[in-house]
């Protein structure tokens, strides 16, 4: 059950009025270049030890938001504060503590692993980069933690299935012992039976290692399963934030209502819901 | 109810590797049948072999008959198949980006499908194309647009309009909404269902999403390792699964349960051709015994049954 977190718990991530504009190429000599407003003033707060979900459809700005939180991109205005450090304007050389404390797992396990590196080198890379001794012992520990055999370290990414590759990505993310784990659609590319394994793994590791989890997905039912709190994004803004159970059961914003009613579920289908019901807007659940 | 599509003992092989074995399947007129399974289970190959679109060196065996077509579809030559494709059987593919011709306007692509099969005159095809776009809720201006000007959901709706252009007896949809957002998916699913219901066409709907199948279809076949392991009405299969794989799949996708841990199926889906002999699921099944080394026989009728030595829902399994 989602444990209600102590409101006094220290903040892990605070985002204040974040704006990110992407200028597009000029189309006219006389007019200024058009601008895509990817984020239009996003504010949120994630407490330490919380499992925080971000849902939204493609193009809503959720990946831009993640990139800014991970300092992989620069904000146009606003602030990102991770564990009391404002990282918004820090130069790369001063981001070292962020790179250790905050790690990412990406959506596509095929493209996020270097095909020419052995798995043990992939997992050890974050340690090597940050100047830690990358012992074989630590790599074996990590492989075991994500449920892969120790000899997996000698093989290459293409020798693994999608689910196993996502385990490798998780092992790599955990290598520098981060306190915050950000997962960007980690199970979208996986089959149902494997998805359950990876969700369980993430859940267990977050509990065991006391991590703060930021879980991004387009799938509200997955977020509902994993997260305590959720923010719903649409067109670069957060339209609704709340405890996942509440948002799912009684969505307040019209967009969230549409989103929730569009999700096909087995229970609803078996009780006779048809495709027309998916389109029903603002239907009370 | 006459059967529109009858598939008997369909097998698909590439050199010595069997990818699909012994698939029996019928779809009646106006019936909506789902085919579910994880990647590598052979569901797309089944669809492609019905259409005769298998890649070179991949061979189909068995029998595929379509009501109203007087020849066998397996092994039919290209000339005969191209008369069936797009007229009697139409298909909506997963990727709307690659299914359309990037150099042709939408209107021309839709009319072409009618002109090729000579189902309408040029003028009638024009009006029909506009009507079809209206049916899939796109503005008439879309007729003059090129595919790159449309979003993924709009393109998938164009593909659907194209598929319905000749009022096919059978519409095959292969993961039509996997690449789409949920709200767009809801619209496309509704359009597919309305499209086939209005024409009383048969629908073969392929997906890995159990909830989508349950919403769209009346009957479902579960595939694993290139075999149909269970079949039956949606309500029956999803509430009282008999095959251990279906049971595991249902448990693994149950995100509604209140417990933090999901029930999982151990292991991974083996790569094609590496499935065990006998029962294809035995390497991942908790109930497997020595008996499972023999291929389990089909229990039940053709439309409702399962292939398992230790079925779920029996006291002494």
UniProtKB/TrEMBL annotation, chain A:
<dbReference type="InterPro" id="IPR003439">
    <property type="entry name" value="ABC_transporter-like_ATP-bd"/>
</dbReference>
<dbReference type="GO" id="GO:0005524">
    <property type="term" value="F:ATP binding"/>
</dbReference>
<keyword id="KW-0067">ATP-binding</keyword>
<keyword id="KW-0547">Nucleotide-binding</keyword>
<feature type="domain" description="ABC transporter">
    <location>
        <begin position="13"/>
        <end position="260"/>
    </location>
</feature>
<dbReference type="InterPro" id="IPR050319">
    <property type="entry name" value="ABC_transp_ATP-bind"/>
</dbReference>
<keyword id="KW-0813">Transport</keyword>
<dbReference type="InterPro" id="IPR003593">
    <property type="entry name" value="AAA+_ATPase"/>
</dbReference>
<comment type="similarity">
    <text>Belongs to the ABC transporter superfamily.</text>
</comment>
<dbReference type="InterPro" id="IPR017871">
    <property type="entry name" value="ABC_transporter-like_CS"/>
</dbReference>
<dbReference type="Pfam" id="PF00005">
    <property type="entry name" value="ABC_tran"/>
</dbReference>
<protein>
    <submittedName>
        <fullName>Peptide/nickel transport system ATP-binding protein</fullName>
    </submittedName>
</protein>
<dbReference type="InterPro" id="IPR027417">
    <property type="entry name" value="P-loop_NTPase"/>
</dbReference>
From TrEMBL, chain B:
<dbReference type="InterPro" id="IPR003593">
    <property type="entry name" value="AAA+_ATPase"/>
</dbReference>
<dbReference type="Pfam" id="PF00005">
    <property type="entry name" value="ABC_tran"/>
</dbReference>
<keyword id="KW-0472">Membrane</keyword>
<dbReference type="InterPro" id="IPR013563">
    <property type="entry name" value="Oligopep_ABC_C"/>
</dbReference>
<feature type="domain" description="ABC transporter">
    <location>
        <begin position="5"/>
        <end position="250"/>
    </location>
</feature>
<dbReference type="InterPro" id="IPR027417">
    <property type="entry name" value="P-loop_NTPase"/>
</dbReference>
<dbReference type="InterPro" id="IPR003439">
    <property type="entry name" value="ABC_transporter-like_ATP-bd"/>
</dbReference>
<dbReference type="GO" id="GO:0005524">
    <property type="term" value="F:ATP binding"/>
</dbReference>
<dbReference type="InterPro" id="IPR050388">
    <property type="entry name" value="ABC_Ni/Peptide_Import"/>
</dbReference>
<keyword id="KW-0067">ATP-binding</keyword>
<keyword id="KW-0813">Transport</keyword>
<protein>
    <submittedName>
        <fullName>Oligopeptide/dipeptide ABC transporter ATP-binding protein</fullName>
    </submittedName>
</protein>
<keyword id="KW-1003">Cell membrane</keyword>
<dbReference type="InterPro" id="IPR017871">
    <property type="entry name" value="ABC_transporter-like_CS"/>
</dbReference>
<comment type="similarity">
    <text>Belongs to the ABC transporter superfamily.</text>
</comment>
<keyword id="KW-0547">Nucleotide-binding</keyword>
<dbReference type="Pfam" id="PF08352">
    <property type="entry name" value="oligo_HPY"/>
</dbReference>
